[in-house]
Design brief:
This protein is α/β, with parallel strands linked by helices. The protein contains eleven helices and 14 strands. Helix content is about 30%, strand content about 15%.
């Protein structure tokens, strides 16, 4: 297992450019940058509004700013968005983008339209720190963490592609965000925290924390900080009810076993019956889908305000598992529901474009060693 890389990321500035990316800066950093230019404080608020409420992608479009000031901004900063390398559309309406950053690395981002919401699945790393065996992303080595600009940039580029700027909140296509794309968000905590602060800002992207969910495979030491400092909904990738099996399916379990994980869930800040933790459980044929597994799952969750999301396994080339039969999944769901927990079966979306849960993988296969060497780092192996 590879360790957390200490927030390692590569900025969105191109090597030949000394301009700073303004997307992804905190309010405080943006205000400080503009103050250094001699601009009054209200200019930072205006620029923030143009960036995140209006989605401006060119300083020239910011007509409430003077022409001279816009020119100065263009000399100092870049309005970075990731480039759309590929745009796939599923027959069920799901859309998947392959976004490319200036250093050539790529991530996948998925939009899932539903009758009552539009959910954007956002990535936090190029590749993944973990090696969960059911997940296609887990077969791709971690290259690097994404910077705040690159996390926020996915949201902004998706809104560009969906013609989602500017719209009243009630008419927006993207209403919900799930940090469930490529990577383990809690192994890129500071950058994800900074990006989600921008996403939740009421004068910017303005997506309520109640409509943002962060999914973790169980990075126990960071879970309390996630609840206290970010405050979004929590989803936990459980997928097994014994340590022996979870060690195989989710190798992170060897470091943070089920008992420790569930203890952290019980202590998660803000968890209550109105705001429950979602436990994700991928259904693997003959592996974790027996009635006994369902009963043990209900026993393990006792005392945790929770709901269970049963995920039919989504196949990918070379996958070591098969999906449980529909009748097996239905029976499993019945047992969990009968035990007093809400269990639902997720409807697979975007399978035809490899956009379903566990299917994301980009072509960024550059060895992490190359990136580490460029930054003067030699990572330790766990």
């Amino acid at each position: 297992m590879r360790p957390y890389l200490g927030g390692m990321s590569v900025a969105l500035c191109t090597p030949e450019s000394k301009r700073k990316p303004v997307v992804g800066m905190s309010r405080e950093a943006l205000a400080a940058e503009l103050a250094s230019m001699g601009a009054p404080a209200f200019r930072a608020r205006q620029l923030w509004h143009w960036l995140y409420a209006k989605g401006a992608s060119d300083f020239a479009a910011m007509t409430t700013l003077s022409k001279g000031f816009r020119a100065e901004l263009a000399e100092r900063f870049v309005l970075a968005r990731p480039t759309v390398a590929q745009d796939h559309r599923s027959e069920d309406g799901t859309r998947k983008w392959l976004f490319r950053f200036p250093d050539g690395q790529e991530v996948e981002t998925v939009f899932i339209p539903e009758a009552d919401r539009g959910t954007l699945c956002v990535s936090s790393q190029v590749g993944c720190t973990l090696t969960c065996r059911f997940c296609h992303t887990g077969t791709q080595r971690l290259v690097r963490n994404l910077a705040p600009a690159e996390v926020v940039g996915q949201i902004m580029a998706a809104r560009d592609a969906l013609d989602d700027w500017p719209r009243p909140e009630a008419e927006r296509r993207i209403t919900n965000i799930v940090m469930m794309g490529m990577g383990e968000p809690l192994y890129n905590f500071e950058n994800v925290k900074a990006a989600l602060a921008i996403a939740m800002d009421g004068e910017g992207v303005s997506i309520s924390k109640r409509k943002i969910t962060l999914s973790t495979a169980g990075v126990v030491p960071m879970m309390a900080r996630c609840g206290a400092e970010i405050g979004v909904n929590l989803a936990v990738s459980l997928h097994a009810v014994t340590d022996a099996l979870r060690d195989e399916v989710v190798p992170l379990n060897r470091k943070y076993p089920i008992a420790d994980l569930l203890r952290a869930c019980r202590a998660y800040p803000g968890v209550n019956n109105a705001r429950r933790i979602t436990f994700e459980y991928v259904m693997l044929k003959g592996v974790n889908d027996s009635p006994a597994d369902a009963r043990e799952l209900a026993r393990l969750l006792k005392g945790i305000p929770s709901k269970v999301n049963l995920i039919p396994f989504n196949p990918w080339p070379g996958a070591p598992y098969a999906c449980s039969a529909p009748e097996t999944i239905a029976r499993f769901c019945e047992i969990v529901n009968a035990s007093g927990y809400t269990a639902t079966v997720r409807t697979p979306r975007g399978r035809d474009i490899m956009a379903a849960c566990g299917q994301l993988k980009s072509a960024s296969v550059k060895a992490r060693k190359t990136v580490d060497e460029s930054l003067g780092r030699v990572p330790a192996e766990a």
